[in-house]
Amino acid sequence: MDFGQILLEALGELVSPTTAAYALAALGLAVHFGYSGLLNFGQAGFIAVGAYGFAMSTIHLQFPFWLALIVAIVAAAIFALLLGIPTLRLRADYLAIVTIAAAEIIRYVVTTNTLTDVTGSANGLAGIRADFLRLNPFPEGDYLGYSSNDFFFRVFGWGLVLILGIAVWLLMRSPWGRVLKGIREDEMAVRSLGKNVYAYKMQALIIGGVFGALAGLVFTLPRDVVQPANYGTEFTFFLWTCLLLGGMSTVLGPIVGAMIFWVVLSLTQNVLYGLIGIGALPFLSTTQAGQLRYILVGVALMLLMIFRPQGVFGNKKELAFS
């Protein structure tokens, strides 16, 4: 078992496009729950809406990259409006129920055979990144061990994480962000000051949803295919794991949480595979090892919640939700 190679592959996950996508989506959840108190259990739905909005406009309408990107953002904003209008005036648990159901509805709708010509059904839509790759400014060659295209995917994904992370940091230190934190802590007190709580919640829901749509883009482009199986409920709960690992009410927390999550997953999987390969775990198959790694990550998360519930970068004071 080559521990050096195992460690190298795990460290490679730190800058992978998938990790960047998780960081973006978890940052959106931080806007929703960490800063606004909105309990969104359907972030995978926003990711799917963004990915399919981009893919369908690229394939069926032949939109260039930037126009398809706008379509994805607008689709996520409309999806947030549809979820928020009937629920944001009610208790937080109604939003949780609606979002988790809506995400599953989106996944089942794009899977139906009736829409095969539009969504590709279970096979999804492929061939969506050609126009994006035309924007690649890096000539053919080796860039830190990555090909030109692979390096471009990483630069694009982490560039978005950097830009949007700074944007969230600035927003949450503005008067608008302070109102959001006030809503999270005591909604009635903010309402008594004459603030339109409903409008602030809707704005936060839209912003976090757009982050999810952009995450769908970063997640999809390297794979060059959009498939409904990638946007199941477990996707959202992995994002919540990233958020809790790093810290809910921070900007850096979701990003570092996503990195920790994927490094730990890679390490546990490769170590288990290596032990199986040398016969140290004869009672375990590679399929079972793939499931066991999630159990180990779950145990680690439980221990984190017991000994450091605020996450790596979180502040205990920020957990004082009403």
Automatic annotation (TrEMBL):
<feature type="transmembrane region" description="Helical">
    <location>
        <begin position="65"/>
        <end position="85"/>
    </location>
</feature>
<feature type="transmembrane region" description="Helical">
    <location>
        <begin position="237"/>
        <end position="263"/>
    </location>
</feature>
<keyword id="KW-0472">Membrane</keyword>
<dbReference type="InterPro" id="IPR001851">
    <property type="entry name" value="ABC_transp_permease"/>
</dbReference>
<feature type="transmembrane region" description="Helical">
    <location>
        <begin position="198"/>
        <end position="217"/>
    </location>
</feature>
<feature type="transmembrane region" description="Helical">
    <location>
        <begin position="6"/>
        <end position="31"/>
    </location>
</feature>
<dbReference type="Pfam" id="PF02653">
    <property type="entry name" value="BPD_transp_2"/>
</dbReference>
<protein>
    <recommendedName>
        <fullName>Branched-chain amino acid ABC transporter permease</fullName>
    </recommendedName>
</protein>
<keyword id="KW-1003">Cell membrane</keyword>
<keyword id="KW-0812">Transmembrane</keyword>
<feature type="transmembrane region" description="Helical">
    <location>
        <begin position="151"/>
        <end position="172"/>
    </location>
</feature>
<feature type="transmembrane region" description="Helical">
    <location>
        <begin position="270"/>
        <end position="285"/>
    </location>
</feature>
<keyword id="KW-1133">Transmembrane helix</keyword>
<feature type="transmembrane region" description="Helical">
    <location>
        <begin position="291"/>
        <end position="307"/>
    </location>
</feature>
<dbReference type="InterPro" id="IPR043428">
    <property type="entry name" value="LivM-like"/>
</dbReference>
